[in-house]
Amino acid sequence: MITLTGFADEISSELDIQLDVLESEQIHHLELRSVWGKNVLQLTDDEAVKVKRILEDRGFQVSSIGSPLGKIKITDNFDLHLEEARKAIWLASFFQVSYVRIFSFYIPDGEHDRYRSEVLSRMQSLVHLAERAGIVLLHENESHIYGDNGERCRDLLQAISSPYLRAAFDPANFVQCKVSPVSEAYPLLDEYISYIHIKDAVMETGSVVPSGEGDGQLRQLLQVLKQKGYCGYMSLEPHLQAAGRLEGLSKPELFIVASRAIKLLLAEQNIPWS
């Protein structure tokens, strides 16, 4: 059984509106990234308590802390970043969730080899924090960071070699790096994937489109996951813009477009979801 979740801050900055739209789509989890215009790491303790109370009252659970950890330059100060990592891991424990989403630092163009050892050192420090708390860090592949393609994502995960560092597989981000997600990246990362981000993109332009309308090989991905018996989270991070045939749609409406697109693909593959 697939569990649908999503970055609800793409719906609205207001938590109640986020939950209303998710509820209308029968989605009862969310990836907590921001509420009330504040990134999750900026929430005060009182605000975190308020968010948790609202979620519990309305029957929602957090699937992952959508932190921006690792979204700094590899040359930026890392000590300050470690404090943010401690906050993210505390939030995961507070919301009783196993996962924190992270990245592997912005690298100057063409200098991945030069900064590899520093990337691994920093990632190992983050993993040590997570291990002590029993929290799993999910590395999301993204352009311009160290782990932007399949080979470097695998290098990172293999070198750290910890069950507390896994992959959040994002098809659209691979497309935007000119990588075919399923035919090129997936075989390298299969054993490390614990979480799926759902968005699609067009290889030629990098534009994000509803699932199944781009080059993200979403149908093939679902086929592979079904064969594998994957039964984890699929997190909607649609990044859709109100342009083209979607022109005039509001953010909540765009999220619903994304939700219904992946549900259609799941139905095509006879994959149940909750």
SS strand fraction: 15-25%
CATH topology: TIM Barrel
The total count of helices amounts to: 9
CATH superfamily: Divalent-metal-dependent TIM barrel enzymes
What is the CA-based Rg, rounded? Answer: 18 Å
> Which overall shape is indicated by the principal axes computed on the Cα atoms?
globular
Which second-level CATH architecture applies? Alpha-Beta Barrel
Helix content: 40-55%
Which consecutive residue ranges, at least 5 long each, have pLDDT under 50? none
Structural class by secondary-structure content: alpha/beta
Q: Taking all residues together, what is the mean pLDDT?
A: 96
Number of domains: 1
Distance between the termini: 7 Å
CATH class: Alpha Beta
Largest sheet: 8 strands, parallel
Could you give the order of strands across the largest sheet? 1-12-9-8-7-6-5-2
Q: Give the number of DSSP strands.
A: 12
Element string (H = helix, E = strand): EHEEEHEHEHEHEHHEEEHEH
